[in-house]
Amino acid sequence: MTEVLDKPELSQDENGDAAAQAARRPAQQPQPIEADDSQAIATYTNFCRVTGTPEELIVDFGLNAQGAAIPTQPIKLTQRVVMNYYTAKRLLGALQMSIARHEQAFGVLETNVQKRVAPQPR
């Protein structure tokens, strides 16, 4: 779920002190944003490619069915997400927070495949 914090506009109080007025105001709680995911299409990916332009970030997703760290055949890209850099930065923060929670509960995620694969005993 995505949460957004909106900061209300500060107006000056009788003495012209906007900071004092803000200090007296109770802290604002994050407001959840309702989202309708009834039309969302779920897809699995184990490969992504990130490219971009000065205005947008392009993230392509696909499936590496070969199972090899370095595939010998081209990976078929099936989904593309294009977003501006502000949205990408918010996504980055959400992903970092989610991964940190996962690692806290289940241990560090090793992204190097060679380190994850244990040699088979003979």
Secondary structure layout plus pairing:
Elements: E1 3-4, H1 18-24, E2 31-32, E3 47-52, E4 56-63, E5 76-84, H2 85-106, H3 113-116
Antiparallel strand pairs: 1-2, 3-4, 4-5
Question: How would you briefly describe this protein structure?
Answer:
The chain is of the alpha+beta class. The protein is built from three helices and five strands; from the N terminus they run βαββββαα.
Structural class: alpha+beta
Give the count of helical stretches: 3
Question: How many extended strands?
Answer: 5
Shape: extended
Strand content: 15-25%
- The arrangement of helices and strands along the chain is EHEEEEHH
Largest sheet: 3 strands, antiparallel
What proportion of the residues is helical, as a percent range? 25-40%
Rg, please?
22 Å
Low-pLDDT segments: 1-11
How does this model look, in words?
The chain has three helices and five strands, in the order βαββββαα. With 122 residues, it is an alpha+beta fold. The strands form two sheets. A three-stranded antiparallel beta sheet has the order 3-4-5. The protein has a two-stranded antiparallel ribbon with strand order 1-2. A hairpin with a 3-residue loop joins strand 3 and strand 4.
List keywords for this structure.
5 strands, single chain, three-stranded antiparallel beta sheet, alpha+beta, two-stranded antiparallel ribbon, 122 residues, 3 helices
